[in-house]
Every structure is written in structure tokens, then in C-alpha cells.
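Researcher: Here's a chain I'd like modeled. Treat it as a single chain, no partners, no ligands.
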Amino acid sequence: MGRPANIRASVTVGFCVWFASAAFAQEGSITGTVRDSVGGVLAGVSVEVASPALIEKVRVVTTDANGLYRIASLRPGIYTVTFTLPGFSGVRREGIELTGDFTATINAEMTVGSVQETVTVPGESPVVDVQSVKQQRVINSEVIAAIPSARTVQTLALLVPGVSTTGTHDVGGTALLGQQQFSVHGSRTDDYRVLVDGFIMGNSYQSFTGFIPNLGSTQEVIVQIGAAQADQWSGGVQLNVIPKDGSNSFRGSVFINGATSSWQTSNFTQRVKDRNLQSPNTLKRLSDINPSFGGPIVRDKLWFYSSARWVDTESYAGNAFFNKNAGLKDVWTYEPDLSRRAFNHNFSHGGGGRVTWQANDKNKFTGGYEYQKSCTCELVGFGTPTIFANTLNISPEAGAYASYPHTWMIPVTWTSPVTNRLVLEAGFLARSERNAANGPAPPNSGGFTPSWREEQEKALIPVMDFGTGIAYHGLVPIVTAMYSDFTSRVPQTRFSMSYVLGNHAFKAGFTYLFNRSEATNTDNDSALRYIFFSDVPIQVMATAAPWDTHQRGTEVALYAQDKWTAKRLTLNLGVRFDQYRTWSLDTHFGPAILIPNRNFDIKGEDIYNLSDLSPRLGVVYDVFGNGKTAIRGSANRYATGFSTAYWEGNVGSPLAGLGVFSTSLVALDTRPWNDANRNFKPDCDFANPAANGECGAGTAGFGRPLRTTELDPKTLTGWGNRGYNWEFTVGGTQELFPKVSVDVAYIWRIQGNLLVTDNRALKPSDYDRYSVVAPADPRLPGGGNYVINDLFDLNPAKTVGGIPVDNYRTFAKNYGKQIAHWNGVDVNLNARPGRLLMAGGISAGRDFTDNCDVVTKLDNPNTLYCKSHNAFSTYIKGYAAYTLPKIDVQVAATLQSLPGPPITALRSYTNAEVAPSLGRSLSGGAQTVDINMVEPGTMFGERLNQVDFRFGKVLRFGRTRTSLSLDLFNAFNRDTILGLSSNYATWQDAQTIVQGRIAKISAQFDF
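Model: Modeled as a single isolated chain. C-alpha cells:
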């Protein structure tokens, strides 16, 4: 099918907007009012803004009839503002610092005198934005160079209160690629994006990327956390990296650091040993080499900036050891080799350059190229396979990986201050990213395959033992397919126009993103995964591999916004139109491992075509008119991100990467398995969905094209049917001292258009209610021994011939009321007086969810834990850096105080324990059922309090500057337990702890 019309439209639109705006480049503004000595407003005053950051060096406007002026679209930098008017002495303000899209209010008072007389008025750079509602934190290159960090945008963002990650906690750079998705203030992780100069770095999954922005070529990192304006699509975490441009001076730097295991202090204390931790996560080695340099090609005309980076880390995984039986095909037990610890290996290598061409005083062009390859090459230790809810200790032979062997991008931008009021901005990005997930690397992947993992490993079937908590024998999948090779090409174009008057700053623009995704999915030689309980087989999973997918998608947006100031009041008024479209191509399915006679085609078809109109409204009031006190409020609607929608369409059932077809492949089949003859082979026919041989009933239609999930057309097309959230904020900012301010905000987020999946082949009456009793245990609520009600098991009659499936995906509101809210408070301090750099604060909030009214009307009427009002989660974070005068000694520290991990207790109840209440055995031949005995959001592990220190010395020789530093990560050598076992057999055993204190030596040479 292929949707040629859509492709032609994409090409046409892309050509028409070849140059597109840096719509999300986040450029600042300078505004204010000019008065005479008696308070009267002055019209016609010439206001000149000068900075090396400007392509034209100087930009000039005049004040309007109300004495107002505004200059927008200013890149980050240091500015000088000069006011002149015939008959009055000139006034100059110097050292105005702009970061992010901060609006600096610079008022002036002019006295009668000679125009040749210019008075430089002392004053600190403003720290309170009295015209913007946006919530963001800016970390510039000065801070990046001063504080101890792993020098990734992700670890920098985690110093912002309220920002959290679903990934691995980092100590000194040990989790290079482990921090994949972020959220803030109750936002979904699908709303998270990494951007470079406004361009999205996501692959087909959008909120995932293997690209690691190069901090050596970074001027500042803008962490957007809320109250986004119309030119930004999401209210979730946005990490926007602003790159450096070259200049007329040749300058550069070289950063080097590293550490080995001998530089780490043990925190393997007796208390964690008593929690059955056999060994902690520890450093094996790490290194970071980052040269950067730039300068003129043609003075005042053409500049370049280039940088490369090589980062490599290896860390031993706690409680993870090589398996003495690894590679033995017919040995199905795990025997740890305590002399050989398992380790994870992460790396990112790459580099590129950027050229800036000032064609004339009205046109500036930039172009660049960057290439990277990166890898999380062994995922060993405690982790969560995607197809399960709880964690397992993954042995090295089972450790899958996620590699990005080929990632490149070519950005082109254009900026034109056509007049002092009209600014045009544009850009285009060509980008490709390849992601090879799981197992041996595909051919021509750049040598990612570890030496101990050869192609013959595909002969080994993975075992996941939920009794012992170990995954071993063969590679454990991290996606539905065992071996997946994705290639995503994501070109982007944007365009914007800014028109600025004294009391208005109007901006309108257009963004366009096209996604072309290709995927190859294969499996191990048997296409099977085994599930054991304490060495006994209880379930088997089968996949219908191999298969390919071909999918396309577009995201288009139009927006307009106006910042309108009337005296002390500024209105931020905006509206955004979003359109999201996806379609699939024709796909052929040939013979599969378990279905050798498979031969059919699935026709390509339209999938999503959703449109949204979202208001972005805000108000700011300059309380005293002195630019030091502002109160603000906002009400913003955001269309929810589609992180995995290109592949799974947010459908809960495993569509195995095929997208949302009206007819799809039934790609995954899980069956009860009673290995009576102990030959560790499921003696059954997977083509027969009914119970047969050693296997219980399976999924009807396995391996065949069936309509397993029908989607409500309204969830796929139309206006306002996409998931969304409303974000409401109210708060204020106060300047406490020069260059010191405090910000307070209350945030409330409401999720809408929530979806549910109902198996219409079943109804609530097809399930039988039962209860179980929690064991007596002082660690359980109330000491345990309580009854867990509202559990349901499918009637055995419904499993004859295979469990019927007729899933229907629709809005939860069609069944009843479902609620998902978040509310909380942020308090942040920002200070930059003199040699001190400091920022940080506290963020506390909690979720409230309630779907009790919905679940009772679905196929399985399970109301257990359907209502949850979580306890407050409190984050305390910040950084501080100070340079001692005269001796040039640097002292810096960072703080992270994070809530503990949520605690669940999954106990496997046997037929003997269930039958007295159920009145029969579990259906489908199941031998056990896993039940969580702890209400979510009520029990948490211990808090993590981590402090990192830096001690450094600056050496200066002429124009060169060398910084030698000693960094101490987890300086107090905490032994905080980060991961707890959720399996009741080993419940609350320590799985991982924070890495012990790491000392790193670093050097930065600037010239």
C-alpha cells in the first residue's frame, strides 16, 4: 500500500520549508521602560543592544509612545544596553546576562544633558523574569565546568528538583546510557525529549535515544520543566542543548578524567550483608576524553567549532556472577562462579563540527555534522525484562544489550533580523539512528558483539526463574522480539517569525517531523523462553519470529503566541495545533521458527490521524514595578507524547512491534507447562491453542493474522481524541539580594482521554472470585495475616479450545470515571553573586489514581488496589561552586536526596492455597498465581542522600588556563539500598546498593 500520497506530501512540505526555525532554540529578550527624571515616559529613545552573541553585533529599536521597548530573539550571552535621545545624556547598562529564554527587564532614567555624555549606570543583571511564566532551569558551560558530574545532559537534569528517571542511578558516570526516560510534576515519560538547538534527538520511540550530546561543544543546557509556551509541544521534561558557535579568536579546551577500581572505597557494610547482598555494584574502570576547539576560517565572516568525545565505563553488577553452566545447552541450572563477577559495559564514541557563516549583517547560517556510536553492551545484574513486572538477577549469558551502532545528524539553520522588529528563524535536520536490541549484533554493526557471545548463543533458550530470582542460560529479551534491529530516519523542518513592538512580542511558526522506521525482528533458534519456579518449569513463552515491519509517521504543528505587556501586567497568550499521523506499509510474513508453513501478507493501512488545538495561557504581574517581585499563573493543555506509538500504538497487548493494524500477527503465546518427563522440552503443539500434551491453553490464533485488538476509531482519528494533560501552575519569584532569587510554585496536573482494553470475548461473570491470606510477617502491614479479597480467576470452561481474545481499545470514560492527577509544590533558590554559583531546592508531590468505576465493567472485574493516593515524594537537590580569590582554588558540591524505591511483595500462591476459597484449582492448568500483597504507594525503601565534592586548582599561563580537580562521588560513602527483591521468597533482600565513594582525577586545559 505504502501511502504514496502521504510521502509526496511529506516531501513537498519538507522542500517548501527547507529552512526551518529554531522554534525551540529558546532565545531571550531585553525589555523595559524609559522615563525622564520626573517620571514621565520618553518616546523615540534609541535603545541599542550590543553583544558578540549577535550576528549583526548591534541591534537598535526605539521606544513607543508609552516609553516601552523590546528586543527579542537574543542568543545566550552578555549584553550591553545603551539609551540615547537628543537633549538627554546617554545611559549605558553593562553585563546583562541572558540564559535560556529569560526576559531581562532593563529600565532607564534619562536626564537632560548633552547627547555626547553617556553615563554608565551600575546595576546587577536581573534575576527575576517579570514577563514569562515558563518554568525552566539553565545550566551553562561555566556551571558544567565547575561542578562534579558525569558530564551528560541527563545527569545535569537530575540536579533539578522534581526531575526523576526510570533508569539507573548514576555515581560518577557509571550509568552512562542507563538513564533513558525522565518525568517531572506527574508528567508521563512519553513526554520527555532530548533536543539539540531545538531539534528532537529521539528515534522511532521519540523519548528514547542513544545520542549523547557532547558537552564539550555545549554553551548551555536548558531544562524545561513546565508552563511551556505554544512553540513547545510538551509539558514534560525537555532537555535542550544549545551548541557553541565559533568566533574571531581561536580557542579550545581538552577535558580528561578517569578512574579505576582501586579509586573506589568499599561500602559493603554488614547491614547490607545481613540483607543478603552477596556483592555490591562497583566500578571496574571509566574514562572520558573530550577535546573541543573553534575559531575563524574567514575573520568576521566564517567560523567553526568542533568537538569529539570518547566515554567508556565498566561496572561490576552486585550479586551477579558468571554461571559455571553457561553455554551448556542441556544443563538447566544456575551455579554461580563466585570468583568471576559479572559486569556492565557502556560506551559512547563520536564527534562532529559546526560552521557559522555570517553572510551579511542580516543573514546568519549554521551547518554541522555529528556521528556517534554507543552501546549498553551487557545488561546484567538486577533488571526488569519488558514482558514481566518484577525484577530478576540477570546472569552474563542472559544479558542482552542495547546498541546504537550508527547515529548521525546534519543540522542547518538560518537566522535573519530583517528589521529591528522582525526576525525570521529557520532550520532543517537530517538524522538517522540505528538501534540493535538484544543478543548478538547484526552483520555490519560496527563490531558490537562481545567476544564471549557468538552466534551459536542463539541456540540457548533463556530461563527466568521467579523462585530463585535468576535469569540465565540464554539471552533474556528486553523487547518482545529477541533480536531487534531498528533503523529510524527522522528529518525535521521548522519555521518561525517574531514581530516585536514595545508592549507586544508576537511569534508564529510551523514545525514538521517525518519518521521512517524499519525493523527486523528475529529470535533464538527455538523461539521459546522458559519460566521456572525454583528450578521447576511452570510456563513457556513462544514467539512467532521472525518478522519485519515498515512504518511511517508525521508530526505537524502550527502555533502562535503573544507576550502582551500593559503596565505591570504581562499576558502570555498562545495556541498550538498538533497533528499526528502514522501509517504502515504492506508486510509479508514467511515461514516462522514454530510455524514453518506461514505465508501471508498484511496490507498497509492508515493508523493514527489525530488533531488537537491546545491553549497555552499565562499571566505575570510585576508586583512593585521594580523587576524584583513577580507572581504568575498558567493554564496549559498538552497533547500527550507517543513514545512507542509508532510501534505498538499504546495498545496494552503485545503486538510485537507491528503497529496498530486492524489485522495483526498474534506474536506471543504464554502457556502453563507441566514438564512431567523432565526433559526440559515443552512436548506440545503450539499451533493448537487448546491444552495439549504438557501445555495448558494458549492464545487463540498464535502466529496467524487475526484481529486480536479492535480499536475504537475515535481513539485513532478526529479532534481532541489524543491523550492529553492540563497543567495548572501558580507561584512567584522574589529577588532576595542582588543576583539571588527564590521561586515558589504550586503545580496541578490532570491526565485526560485515558484508555482501557476490554476483552469482549469475556465478561465479568466468566470470572470466579476468591481470596487468599497474607502470611504472618512483621514486615507486612499490620504484621500480615490479613485477607486479600477481590481476586478473580477465569472459569475453566472458557479455556477450552484456547482462551478467546477479542480485545477492544477505547476510552475509559465509556465505562465509567477514571482519575489520574498529580499535585505538588516546588521551592527553588538561584544565586550567582560574585564567585559563587548556587542553585537548588525542594520538590514534593504525589499521584492520585482511581479506576474502580471502570474495572468492574471490564472482562476481569479485579478491583484490588484500583484506588491509590500515594504518599508525598520529596526531592531535594542542588549544586554550589566557589572559587577562592587570589589562590584560584575551586570548591564545589552537588546534593541529591531522593525518595526510596516503592515496595511490592509478589507471592506465588499454589493451587492448594487458592482452592479453598476458589472452590477449584486455577484454570488453564496453572500451578501458581502471583499476587501483590502490598498496596502500591504505601511502602517505600530508604532515601538516598548523595553528596559529591570537587576540589580543584586553577593554573594560568598567559592565555591558557588549566584546571586540575579531584572529584569525590558519594563522598560520605553511603550504602543506601536502591533495589529490593519483590519476590516474597526473597522479599526485601537487597539487590543493589548505591556505588561506593569514587575518586576521579580530571584535568581541563583551556587555550
